[in-house]
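QA checklist item 7 of 12: single-chain prediction sanity check.
[x] sequence parsed
[x] length recorded as 301
[x] structure emitted
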Amino acid sequence: MHRYQKLLVALNLNEQDEATIHYASLVAQMAGSRCVHFLHVIRTDQTLAKAEVYRNLIASARPAAEAKMAEAVAARFRSPDGIEVIQDVREGVPITEVLRAAREEEIDLIVVGRKAGKASVGDLPERVTRKAPCSVLIVPEQSRPRIDRILVPVDFSDHSADAVDVAVAFAKAREIREITCLHAYNVPIPSSYVMGEGEAELAEAFRQYAGRAYDEFIEPFRGRGVDFRILLRLESEEAKAILDAADEEKADLVVVGTRGTSAATVLLGSVTEQLIWTTKVPLLAAKRKGSNWDLLSLLLG
């Protein structure tokens, strides 16, 4: 698995970083990464930047942050032979500096932690995933560093195909024999229009259609050393179907494409956003490297 040669790991310098660093170590070993760039951003307030007392406070914070980062990385990161490890403390707005580093270093994968419990709209993991020029791995606090069971939600789009492709690479690197795919479908006709057996027959017709669509979708991935299993779920709330399946299957990694065919999809995708806020297991938002370059150029100049 050579696609993730350069990793960027965003650190908060708190207990949340433990799982983040462990997962970065696991991915770096799987991918044979060449460089892992650890980054912590000391948030600054531009309205106070001219005040000497504020500048002195920020200046005194840097050595403490650098020492804390060095301690955390030394304790938790198992460095593959020959890998370059960068420890970087910057000042500014976290989302801006993370994206700037991703662009400057031509990063392949950003690893970012997420605090335990439900995240809030606008938190760093969501904002990074929305704007990043590459794939993003969101690691919930207290996640165990293992990848043995992979779940891939699919809607048969090109973005879903990207997610399956990434999942296959992870599976082969971990010698996982089978990937579970999930397709959530619903009957787009109000039940008040269809009664009794007619409703059940219609649902079964949609299930069979989804099964045929899946067979056609997955065919190009067969013969790559990994088996596939499909779960077809009648569920109008896609995020709920994914979270339930991840729990039932005891998945320890969910891989999603960053866009789908849903009419609600805008930039990142409403389903992916909900997963970022609520997932209990690591979530890899697969994105082709170089995505959002134009947006980043506008944001960063």
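[x] summary fact logged: The beta strands are 6-10, 35-43, 84-92, 109-114, 135-140, 150-153, 178-185, 227-234, 253-257, 283-286.
[ ] second reviewer sign-off
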